[in-house]
Write a structure and sequence with these properties.
The protein is mainly alpha-helical. Helix 1 packs across helix 2, helix 2 packs parallel to helix 4 and helix 4 crosses helix 9. The longest helix is centred in the middle third of the chain and has 34 residues.
């Protein structure tokens, strides 16, 4: 049943071309990795080659950024009470909100960029950024810079896989581990730098 729903949504995305990729990422009923990989498939000869690689990446980046902007607004204008009540519908658990809010409050805006490469946390981090009333421009800058390589990676992999694009999770798995490891190391380095600066100021 779920597979049929996803298949129907992907056909809907295909009919809209670039706009379908953007809308698919904005709504995010289907995981972004699948939407981007399918976009890559549409770029490939196997998928008809009607879309360009650059176009798929651009619209994927716009859609992914807007999806995070909506979560940011939810945090900024709804506040913690609204999120604790309705967060479950966004598949966001309280412990993830607590963790990301703590990161943002303690270590500032840099966390937004690095956390984008860690599953689950990458979506939850937009909400604490909104609660902390991070400036819109700063939020958009860090979010966009992180989503660009994510979009390039999955569109490219989907393009190379062609008819086998549905194997995206299996093929991307080993690379995602390196994404996560790199992000964790960068976050640790960033946190140590922030702590060092605070100790010097004090």
């Amino acid at each position: 049943m779920i597979h049929q729903i996803i298949e129907s949504l992907l056909h809907f995305i295909e009919g809209l071309g670039y706009w379908g990729i953007m809308l698919g990422l904005m709504v995010e009923v289907i995981p972004s990795e699948i939407v981007l990989a399918y976009g890559g498939y549409l770029v490939s000869d196997a998928g008809g080659g009607e879309l360009s690689f650059v176009g798929a990446v651009i619209f994927g980046t716009i859609g992914g950024t807007l999806a995070q902007l909506f979560l940011y607004w939810l945090g900024r204008y709804g506040g913690r009470p609204v999120l604790e009540k309705y967060g479950k519908y966004l598949m966001l658990k309280k412990k993830h909100l607590d963790l990301t809010e703590k990161w943002v409050n303690q270590y500032g805006t840099g966390v937004i960029f690095f956390a984008r490469f860690i599953p689950i946390v990458r979506h939850a981090v937009s909400i604490p950024a909104g609660i902390a009333k991070m400036p819109h421009v700063t939020f958009l800058l860090y979010t966009t810079l992180a989503i660009i390589p994510w979009s390039i990676f999955f569109v490219y992999l989907g393009m190379k896989l062609g008819d086998n694009w549905e194997q995206i999770e299996e093929k991307a798995g080993p690379y995602i581990i390196w994404f996560i490891l790199g992000a964790v190391l960068l976050i640790i380095g960033y946190i140590l730098t922030v702590r060092r600066r605070k100790s010097v100021i004090q």
